[in-house]
Each structure stands twice: as structure tokens, then as C-alpha cells.
Amino acid sequence: MATPVNWRQGEDVIIVPAVTDEEARRKYPKGWRVLKPYLRLTPQPR
Fold this sequence. Notes:
By secondary structure, the protein is of the alpha+beta class. The protein has a single domain, classed as Antioxidant, Horf6, Chain A, domain2 (Antioxidant, Horf6, Chain A, domain 2, 2-Layer Sandwich). Helices cover 15% and strands 24% of the residues. A 3-stranded antiparallel sheet has the order 1-3-2, with no helix packed on it.
């Protein structure tokens, strides 16, 4: 996962493109939003 420059604690984080959708399903069971094919956002893991 990655965070944008202006990221604040509690905001969504970015799932890096190197992580496949299959891997993301296991790592982020809450799901994600797709803004662009290469830009997926998920709630910050606890």
C-alpha cells in the first residue's frame, strides 16, 4: 500500500499496481474503489 503526499491518518490508502486483484482480495477483505485501472483505494488497515 502507499499514501499520497497530503495523506492524513484515517484516510484511504492506495493499493500499489504491483498487487494483483487476487492478492488484494486476500490482503484487503473490505474491498476497494477503482478510480482508474491503475489506482485503487481501500480503507486504511488497522
